[in-house]
Amino acid sequence: MNKYLVWSVPIRLLMVFLVGIFLISPLLAAPPKKVNINTASVAELQTLPRIGPQIAQRIVDFRTKNGKFKRVEEIMKVRGIGEKVFEEIKDKITVGSGESK
Predict the structure, then answer these.
(1) Parallel, antiparallel, or unpaired: how do β-strands 93-94 and 35-36 relate?
(2) What are the domain boundaries of the chain?
(3) Of 43, 34, 96, nearest to 67 (Cα)?
(4) How far apart are CA 61 and CA 64, in angstroms?
(5) Closest CA to 76 of 64, 98, 58
(6) How far apart are CA 101 and CA 97, in angstroms?
(7) Is 10 helix (H, G, I), strand (E, B) or coil?
(8) Cα–Cα distance between 73 and 67 in angstroms, integer?
(9) How far apart are the first and last CA of the chain?
(10) Is residue 5's pLDDT more than 70?
(11) Mean pLDDT for all residues in the chain
């Protein structure tokens, strides 16, 4: 019996298994956690795209002065966050449980 033939079946099965795992693994990954703009620290807010230290601090200051955000859209009241930035972060932020959209 050919020695290459003996190893070809297990190797093919291993390859199929590895390709299957590679294709399925993104589906099994947990969805990214949203940042709660009512409780997030300056550092946590900076994990959002286009939110640097100054805008993150403005969000915290706005929240301290005006109370909790009731809707994610209210973040556009913070200086430096317009429609373009909001479009980039809206799916990455939350105001917590009972969020109204």
Answers:
(1) parallel
(2) 35-94
(3) 96
(4) 5
(5) 58
(6) 12
(7) helix
(8) 15
(9) 68
(10) no
(11) 87
Which residue type is seen at 32? P
Residue environment code for 83-93, b if the CB has 16+ CB neighbours within 10 A, otherwise e: eebbeebeebb
Tell me which residue has tokens 């809707």: 71
Q: What is the pTM of this model?
A: 0.69
| CATH number of the structural domain 35-94 | 1.10.150.320
Q: According to DSSP H, which parts of the chain are helical?
A: 3-28, 42-45, 53-66, 83-89
**Residue 98: pLDDT band by 50, 70, 90 thresholds?**
low
> Which two tokens mark 12?
């093919």
Distance CA 51, CA 44 (A): 10
Question: Mean pLDDT across the stretch 11-36?
Answer: 81
